[in-house]
Design brief:
With 356 residues, this protein is an alpha+beta fold. Among the domains are: 46 residues; 103 residues, Tetrahydropterin Synthase, Chain A (2-Layer Sandwich), CATH 3.30.479.30. The protein is 56% helix and 18% strand. The strands form 3 sheets. The protein has a 3-stranded antiparallel sheet with strand order 3-2-5. The protein has a 3-stranded antiparallel sheet with strand order 6-7-8. Helix 8 packs across helix 9. It starts with 7 loop residues before the first helix and ends with a helix. It is found in: Mitochondrion inner membrane. Keywords: Mitochondrion. It is a lipid-anchor. InterPro entries: Band7/mec-2_domain (IPR050710), Band_7 (IPR001107), Band_7/SPFH_dom_sf (IPR036013), STML2-like_C (IPR032435), Stomatin_HflK_fam (IPR001972). This is Stomatin-like protein 2, mitochondrial.
């Protein structure tokens, strides 16, 4: 607690002048303690003693002894943390907006001697210093930065107060802004700005959602096409592999059939079996004539199965280059004549077709 001595009528007149000027009176204990020779000083208090009007010493907490009449307790200072409400005041920001702002100041007396003799009213002095510093710092910031940089603003005010109040023996611990009142029209403009910003963010988010949706759809179509092409590729590969396997199987089966046929031809009466097979195939092919098309070419004697069999056997013998049996000489000569006659008849038929 801060205190000052009372000196009769002069003290009362000074207090009345302070109240008339709007200054808050200093914090004081319930009257200054009297010199009773033996004094007990409470903890966290400092009693300033004057001897014959001059500073003598500061009483420490505990038992203290003073000389009557000569020693007098002039000031009682509290060493506890003091909380001071800074009154509301107007301040103009960098962008010419008038604000009503108040705060709370936390301070502590570090040197009772300087707090007693360095300034008349420490509390009032610190309060005025806080107000002027706050107006000065607000004039450096725009309205938007005032709300965003409250912590830096508080720190700047504390540094300015500590630099000025060092000679007063007072240390400012912290300063907090309580309320910031904005003019009604400026408040309406700020609300409109906030609503516009929200609508902007909503529009941006909606457009981003549409873009993401389109990207996802395109990506899905791309993946679908890739998968479909891979499926077609796999299908074609499988189909080609199946066809190749089928061709190999057919070729293998045909090779085995040829081997079996060759083995059968080498056996007894193999030529007769081959002639019988050719005759059966000729009859089967002759029965299918004129079924698929109405234009056909026929030999001169299509009903002569023997000549056709002999001709087929002659081709087979020429391919195998094997010896022709003597019993088949007449058949071979007759087959050659039949072939020649067939060629002649075919030539005549072609000439007739050309003439028509």
């Amino acid at each position: 607690m801060l205190a000052r001595s009372a000196r009769g009528t002069g003290t009362l007149l000074l207090r009345g002048c302070l109240q008339a000027s709007g200054r808050a009176p200093r914090r004081a204990s319930s009257g200054l303690p009297r010199n009773t020779v033996v004094l007990f000083v409470p903890q966290q208090e400092a009693w300033v003693v004057e001897r014959m009007g001059r500073f003598h010493r500061i009483l420490e907490p505990g038992l203290n002894i003073l000389i009557p009449v000569l020693d007098r307790i002039r000031y009682v200072q509290s060493l506890k943390e003091i909380v001071i409400n800074v009154p509301e005041q107007s301040a103009v920001t960098l962008d010419n907006v008038t604000l009503q702002i108040d705060g709370v100041l936390y301070l502590r007396i570090m040197d009772p001697y300087k707090a007693s003799y360095g300034v008349e009213d420490p509390e009032y002095a610190v309060t005025q210093l806080a107000q002027t510093t706050m107006r000065s710092e607000l004039g450096k910031l725009s309205l938007d930065k005032v709300f965003r940089e409250r912590e830096s603003l508080n720190a700047s005010i504390v540094d300015a107060i500590n630099q000025a109040a060092d000679c007063w023996g007072i240390r400012c611990l912290r300063y907090e802004i309580k309320d910031i009142h904005v003019p009604p029209r400026v408040k309406e403009s700020m609300q409109m700005q906030v609503e516009a910003e929200r609508r902007k963010r909503a529009t941006v988010l909606e457009s981003e959602g549409t873009r993401e949706s389109a990207i996802n759809v395109a990506e899905g179509k791309k993946q679908a096409q890739i998968l479909a092409s891979e499926a077609d590729k796999a299908e074609q590969i499988n189909q080609a592999a199946g066809e190749a396997s089928a061709v190999l199987a057919k070729a293998k089966a045909k090779a085995e059939a040829i081997q079996i046929l060759a083995a059968a031809l080498t056996q007894h009466n193999g030529d007769a079996a081959a002639s019988l097979t050719v005759a059966e195939q000729y009859v089967s092919a002759f029965s299918k004539l004129a079924k698929d098309s109405n234009t056909i070419l026929l030999p001169s004697n299509p009903g002569d199965v023997t000549s056709m069999v002999a001709q087929a056997m002659g081709v087979y013998g020429a391919l195998t280059k094997g010896p022709v049996p003597a019993s088949q000489d007449s058949v071979s000569s007759r087959s050659s004549r039949d072939v020649q006659g067939t060629d002649a008849s075919l030539d005549e038929e072609l000439d007739r077709v050309k003439l028509s």
